[in-house]
Backbone:
């Protein structure tokens, strides 16, 4: 048999009335890349609509899992629910499996430091700027992608040329404001970098939150290119400095700290 991962797009909580506003840990294109690294051969993306959400668990199993896919084994999280009103669960799948002849394997809870890992906890850690905790729960560096767009070139004037990133998917979760040690992937090559997420308060009134990266020892023009940022560790929060000189001094310190952190993971 062949392996297949089923995912929904958009996120169900964006469609179901009363669902909380949700930011994504992985966009659809990121999911595709992640599952490729695990050697999963196929990806089925089901369009999640209001009509789709009204199917009973039994209808979903019948229509998709049995008729469309012809499953032999389903691997599912221990607390997974599906179908109208989240009425479907492992018990329903097991019952159907016995009737039709497919196996159901439940993946039990996964704990780190006695805490059950969940996407909600990972999101909370990212929003709080606790990137170390988020990365530990993810088992990888949290990452996002952005297209390099022109900025006001202020970083270049300060001796720290930065690439301003426009994140394509507005639903992608960007970590808390601050300065981070990061690894950037440009044209397939990894580079040490500092990531700044913030509104650049030394030079601007509070405005839009902009992620920008200072790629260390790098001087290529990369406008309109896609850069992947792997967020390694938070160095500090965002600060407002009284002068450009003060900011430059701090950036030198940030670079030193960032390189020490990145050296440990190389």
Residues:
């Amino acid at each position: 048999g062949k392996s297949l991962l089923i995912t929904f797009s958009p996120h169900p909580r964006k469609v179901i009335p009363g669902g909380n506003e949700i930011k994504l840990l992985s966009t659809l294109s990121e999911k595709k890349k992640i599952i490729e690294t695990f050697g999963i051969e196929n990806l089925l993306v089901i369009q999640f609509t209001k009509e789709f959400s009204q199917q009973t668990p039994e209808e979903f199993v019948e229509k998709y899992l049995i008729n469309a896919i012809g499953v032999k084994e389903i691997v599912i999280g221990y607390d997974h629910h599906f179908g109208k009103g989240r009425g479907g669960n492992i018990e329903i799948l097991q019952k159907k499996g016995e009737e039709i002849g497919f196996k159901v394997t439940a993946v039990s809870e996964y704990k780190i430091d006695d805490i059950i890992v969940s996407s909600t906890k990972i999101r909370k850690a990212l929003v709080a700027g606790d990137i170390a905790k988020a990365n530990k729960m993810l088992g990888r560096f949290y990452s996002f992608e952005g297209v390099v767009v022109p900025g006001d070139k202020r970083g270049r004037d300060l001796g720290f040329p930065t690439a301003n990133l426009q994140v394509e998917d507005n639903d992608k979760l960007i970590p808390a404001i601050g300065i981070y040690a990061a690894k950037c992937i440009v044209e397939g090559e990894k580079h040490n970098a500092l990531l700044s997420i913030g509104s650049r308060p030394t030079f601007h009134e509070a405005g839009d939150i902009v992620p920008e990266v200072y790629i260390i020892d790098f001087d290529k023009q990369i406008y309109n290119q896609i850069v992947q940022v792997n967020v390694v560790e938070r160095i500090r929060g965002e600060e407002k400095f009284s002068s450009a000189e003060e900011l430059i001094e701090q950036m030198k310190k940030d670079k030193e700290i960032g390189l020490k952190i990145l050296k440990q993971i190389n």
Observations:
- The chain has two domains: 4-111, 139-265.
